[in-house]
Amino acid sequence: MFQMLESSSRRDLLCRVGVGGMAAGLLASGLSAKVAKAADVPKVVLEWVGAWESDEAARKIAALYAPDGTYGDVSASASVQGQDIEAFVQSFLSGTNGVQRYFRQGFVDGDYTIADQLITAMAPDGINFLFQVYALTLFKIEGESIAWSSDYYDSGSILMQLGTIPAAPWFNAPGVPDAVGRFCEKSG
Q1: Quick one: how far is CA 87 from the chain centroid?
Q2: Is residue 18 one of the residues assigned to a domain?
Q3: Residue 6 falls inside a structural domain
Q4: Which of these ranges, 10-14, 36-40, 99-103, 131-135, has the smallest mean pLDDT?
């Protein structure tokens, strides 16, 4: 479990819980974390993760938010609310044959949940892999709905995998399989 200290604001928590710095941020801020089992994660969060694989992903994801809910994508510097969520998710999905989010583990405390995921996007042909990246999503749950969420992932890694920017020297270093290689090895 993690506990938000009285002196911590949502913004402070979001800044401390970035990809690669989650554990350090939790410790530095005085939060104590305990991994939650999937059964302990709010149903709406698990539905959100699963909805990404749906044929109507954008509609199903948007339906999980409160009417005035907010979807934030920190790496894309985007934040949308209410009825704009569906169009935003649809734009993220355009150019792919689907995005899959594999729930790895979660952290839960009251109304707050962090979902640790592996995101995989497939090319429009449905055969080729576009990119794979680890992500964290921070949720605030109110009742049975998502009040707000914020995605955190390494957009530079996605751009390297897409060939949009040159790969860092370590990205495809000998003896260190690249993301596509790791995906192919595990997929057979």
Answers
A1: 18
A2: no
A3: no
A4: 10-14
Task: Answer yes or no: is 84 within a domain.
Answer: yes
Q: Which pair of structure tokens corresponds to residue 1?
A: 């479990």
CATH of the domain at 53: 3.10.450.50
pLDDT in the model for residue 2:
34
Evaluate whether residue 163 is within a structural domain.
yes
Domain containing 169: what range? 37-187
- Looking at the structure of the chain, the number of domains it has is 1
pTM beyond 0.90 = no
- What's the chain's average pLDDT? 78
Q: Are 13 and 33 in contact (CB under 8 A)?
A: no
pLDDT tens per residue across span 56-98:
999 999 999 999 999 999 999 999 999 999 999 999 898 888 8
Pairwise CA distance, residues 23 & 16, whole Å: 9
- Burial class (CB within 10 angstroms; exposed 0-12, middle 13-18, buried 19+) of 7: exposed
